[in-house]
Amino acid sequence: MREFLKRSWATIDLDAIGRNIAAVRARLAPGCRLMAVVKADAYGHGDRFVATAMARAGVDWFGVSNIDEAVSLRRHGICHPTLIFGPTPVQMAGLLSRYNITQMIPSLEYARSLQEIAQASEDVLEVHIKLDTGMSRLGFLAYGEDLNRSLDEIGEIAKMPNLSITGTFTHFAVADEDDPESVAFTKLQFQRFQEALSQLEERGIPTGIRHCCNSAGVINYPEMHLDMVRPGVILYGLSPSADCQGRMPLSPAMSLYSTLTLVKTVAAGTTLSYGRIFTAPHKMRVGTVSIGYADGFERNLSGKAKVLIRGKFAPVIGRVCMDQLMVDLTDIPDAQELDLVTVVGQDGENAISFDDFAAQSDTVNYEKICLVGKRVPRVYRKGGMDIGVAEYLKKDFDL
Fold it and tell me: Is 0.85 topped by the overall pTM?
């Protein structure tokens, strides 16, 4: 494996991803398909290596956000059925046919535009109809006084010669929340989805593969799995929410590391970093770590977060910079330059999880893994060995 810049880097445990896929499979009824969601560069883990590992682990479909992400999978040799969750600009519709990609349809107007383009090029595009059952983001309104109009519009799409409906889906808004109101709303969404499917079938309109369960739906609502589930964050070993914590075995795949680049002693009264927001209360040892907000260690963590050095917690002091931050080494007297710094992961008996990291920023683990910067190499491990590295700034890969 090629050497990489050991400034800050992430390790991705592909065996952990395999275990998470197996844990999802164990919850599914025979015949229920598994769509692995790999949008946002596989949630920041790197789509090429991760999708390849997922394909080998036996997933059935892939889900992505946009046409560029779908084409990226194809160019990396992933030939599995792939669904785009967002609209593809109609001028790029030729890529759907060229790469055999399934497109989500959120409205009649969009379907008409796509049909016109597909007809002109004599292509037949596979599509999944998106029903809005309460997320209020994308899709045909599938409840109340709008339902019949939506059914009529989907019926019109079913007659379009260059669009083939091969699936119908919706998306849950609060399946990860346990309070009675959220549970009731998720059940209402499912009821609306089932009613719309039933009425489509009564009209002779194909529904194809029926799917609605995201990661939280996989965990909390087995009766709603239907023909396919769409797990995302749980495949990477993270829980969708605190309410879902501990409900299925998960193995976090990503750890994040950096390097202690400088150790020095400063006098009492010394101010540190931009804004001089930290003043040394006494003579103290300070370490500089080569990670900053351009790498995903956000500026709002200044004075809040901790890292691990030699198995001990080191508080972040002063303002986090674009490329570096500083830590208090008072309780780690043996810390030396070039020591490994664990930002997220296990070091001895202590650990920092992405949930811990997210809580310090008042956000969610999803966001933190997606924010790990592109100049941070991803190092892939399998069987306890490093097998490859993705370095985005070098724009190439090495197996």
Answer: yes
